[in-house]
């Protein structure tokens, strides 16, 4: 085994060659399961472990914690699910026992039994007296991601796969991870993926205000204006952040959202240094489930959805899930609408207890994509000529503006367990997208005293095709008393975007008394490109459990190629000219964590990221890739006997070569270097069975550590802004959410929730000449289970966001682009489960 691991490590670090890269890609495009002939690993714990007697002194406590402690001391593997152990206690263990005797004692009275497998492995199963907990066989896999990706009750997730691509307890993960559960999304009335994270520390979810077109997420102060940090079912969303073609998923189709803070290229390749957001879609259930819902709300919102799932065959080896949604709404901006029609069919097949396949599709049509634009700080943040720009103001043209997007994705998740040591997984997704965009936007006042805004036009017709495949081979084994979970992987992604862009200018518009109809466009020269990206990566990770220590080691080698071919002649570039950029990058991650018996878990970690720029400068040359490096020092606390989790993390991230552009320009600039450091605090509390509380605080100190190119009217000037803060990066953020469910008396079935969100001041421009004021928003939720009055399966919920209808500017990206915050939104939802 040592020889195999050494070979993989050396391969990941070797210099890239054309032959090596082609070989890796060929392997990636074939199935990952061709390694079935690999012999099983010999592990240190042999059959004698289960028969020999050993002395134990394990205190009584929550069953999951007690079993984990026992498995480590006994040198065995024990596969279970959180649903099996949730809410159960164990009497503990004291004295000399064999493994079988000890498990009988630990599980006494729980209704569960431990069934011995090959070597020293056990699987937790439901005893005959407790069939109510029975789960599909394939859910009970120690190697699987079920513990990290399944549904759960309440707000408190216990495991996540986002940091390690394996099911790892949050308390044992040496990096900051937050999880938003399905129940939290429903209680808070989230209507977009961005909104699901409004109560998560370190995340600014509305850097572009009230627009719903893309799921912009700025993390730890970093916002590059793209959605490159969104992942779905373990794979990058594969939109093109340099265009208007970005994939978006409606939260109605999600089971949970995992947020990993900081650089994460070791497992995922190119990524933002601020972190990533991992979406998990709803999967088929092996028990019948049927739900329909209808929503009405302010701004003319109307929506209906359905969610059907269950087994197909009597043996419950095939299950389906079919989810659909139709939603339409006006927006807070005049002359703008949003419409979305989505269907997501999914089928899961358990061929055997060791082999499963999930087939997925996501089909979405959006004839109206809503508003996306900004207005000058002079008029938005303070009065201009005695007046402010309305939060409903639309600077475009009703007869011109349109955003239409069609996206279809198809994929699968294949998993096979060879034995107690080896398992393999392959995830694949293909994305096809068609986007049409015509937008009229404002850029600055026509004169120092005028009420009229200059207007420009941008048009785009884009077709995107992309696919991504990730092969993983996981091995779990012991060397002495030390447990290793080794993950070897290779992934490949390819993307092609054909874009036709137009631009021009229109007549100005009065920002305080807009009159529409001046839709004549003076066109500039069009542009047409074919943009390509190809990435190949190999990675190796070892998660080490040594008594109460947890170590994580990771290394990855990437080969990335980008190209940009113009299809129309430009100044100095004949048609057909192609600009290519090839990069190789080695990234690493290392972490250490210690588990104290009192629930404390201090940790330290170092991680790296890179993100090749598909952007070009004014001369058409690709910008250098951005590089990120982070040190993080943290403390996690999980009180014994609970799933509550408190996290405190100190971090420092250094990034170089961040790209930026002005909206009216078709080229980008590198802004030098940025340093971000700060503190994040998070608490998930289940105070009682009825009372749940979330709390967070974020302090972010981010500044330019090297000067950048100015974004003022003379863009070639160098501004000495070292020490200044970037835009859209508030220094302080805080939030609290509480939810209480009555379960007795006259109020039985009533649910009340409420929260407050504070976002501190941020800078309007990179030169730090003006600030966006802080703002505080209040949210509320009221729900009632009508089954308490005889309407079984019927539930009603009322959500109000920005309850006091605060008028505010969410952030500014420059003096000319400030983004209005979302006004009060109230929605009532009726659901029926049958």
From TrEMBL:
It comes from the Bacteria. NCBIfam families: TonB-siderophor (TIGR01783). InterPro entries: Beta-barrel_TonB, Beta-barrel_TonB_sf, Plug_dom, Plug_dom_sf, Secretin/TonB_short_N, TonB-dep_rcpt-like, TonB_sidphr_rcpt. This is TonB-dependent siderophore receptor. Gene3D superfamilies: 3.55.50.30, TonB-dependent receptor, beta-barrel domain, TonB-dependent receptor, plug domain. The keyword Membrane applies. It is found in: Cell outer membrane. The lineage of its organism: Bacteria, Pseudomonadati, Pseudomonadota, Gammaproteobacteria, Pseudomonadales. SMART domains: STN. It is a multi-pass membrane protein. Residues 1-37 form the signal peptide. The keyword Transport applies. Belongs to the TonB-dependent receptor family. Keywords: Cell outer membrane, Ion transport, Iron, Iron transport, Membrane, Receptor, Signal, TonB box, Transmembrane, Transmembrane beta strand, Transport. Residues 76-127 form the Secretin/TonB short N-terminal domain.
